UniProtKB/TrEMBL annotation:
Keywords: ATP-binding, Kinase, Nucleotide-binding, Serine/threonine-protein kinase, Transferase. This is non-specific serine/threonine protein kinase. It comes from Drosophila virilis (Fruit fly). PANTHER family: SERINE/THREONINE-PROTEIN KINASE 16 (PTHR45998), SERINE_THREONINE-PROTEIN KINASE 16 (PTHR45998:SF2). The keyword Transferase applies. It holds the Pfam family Pkinase. It catalyses: L-threonyl-[protein] + ATP = O-phospho-L-threonyl-[protein] + ADP + H(+); L-seryl-[protein] + ATP = O-phospho-L-seryl-[protein] + ADP + H(+). InterPro entries: Kinase-like_dom_sf, Prot_kinase_dom, Ser/Thr-specific_kinases, Ser/Thr_kinase_AS. Residues 28-246 form the Protein kinase domain. The keyword Iron does not apply.
Length: 246
């Protein structure tokens, strides 16, 4: 199941909708389609009671395995306490996935809505205007990403790794602080590879879930006997910083 990056938080044309959603007793009205991927999509929605805007992510699950992968994103969010890592506001799983009788369920995840979009969006906007990002802002974003990664790498009971850190998965808050998002690819940071099957499995997962431009070298051809750890995120972070500087 492919996750969809958060470049999508910027408006990409009118998708007028009055769809109503009920998630754990809270009512939302869908205003706009922000993103759509193979098995998931993200809508901009307004809470009927508070009138606050949220990004609601829906993931269609065709099997219990798909469901467990989708729920992992929520579980990972709950393990991390950082202002630089996205938080889940609410969620609800509806339906029953069964690959045998071809039924699906849908996981609805209510997330904060970042009106400034992603770092990737911001860089593209500046590029069109030929407006370079000030050095102070680059440092602010770099330090915020470092703080978010530290919280991920120090998660309890085991350290975690994002595995798909890129400019499209860094959103900007109202104060332009960086927020690491899209935790669907996150896994335990320290993996012991013991044999060809382990190596091939991790390599296949990296090809499916990690963007090639930001993927750490050790994930392209995984060695048969090795240890993979949180340093894969350090490589991705440096690639993202290079993107900002260029």
């Amino acid at each position: 199941m492919h996750s969809i990056g958060w470049t999508l938080i910027v408006k990409r044309g009118c998708f007028c909708s009055k769809e109503k959603l009920n998630i754990n007793g809270s009512r939302y009205t869908v205003r706009e389609r922000l993103a759509q991927g193979g098995f998931s999509l993200i809508d901009l929605a307004v809470n009927a009671a508070t009138r606050r805007s949220y990004a609601i992510k829906r993931i269609t699950c065709h099997s219990i395995e798909d469901q467990n992968i989708a729920l992992r994103e929520i579980e990972n969010c709950r393990k991390i306490d950082s202002e630089h890592v996205i938080r889940v506001v609410d969620y609800e799983l509806k339906g029953q996935a069964d690959i045998v009788i071809n039924t699906t369920n849908t996981l609805f995840i209510v997330l904060p809505y970042y009106k400034h979009g992603s770092l990737s969006d911001h860089l593209q906007l500046r590029a069109r205007k030929q407006d370079h990002m000030p050095e102070a802002q680059i440092l602010q974003i770099f330090l915020g990403v470092c703080e978010g990664l530290r919280a991920i790498h120090e998660a309890k009971p085991v350290p975690l790794a994002h595995r798909d850190l890129k400019t499209a998965n860094i959103c900007l808050s109202d104060s332009f602080e960086p927020i690491i998002v899209d935790l669907g690819s996150m896994t335990e940071a320290r993996l012991q590879i013991c044999g060809q099957s382990d190596a091939q499995r991790l390599q296949d997962e990296a090809e499916e879930r990690s963007s090639i431009v930001y993927r750490a070298p050790e994930l392209f051809t995984v060695k048969t006997y090795c240890t993979i750890d949180e340093r894969t995120d350090i490589w991705s972070r440096l690639r993202a910083v290079c993107h900002v500087l260029l």
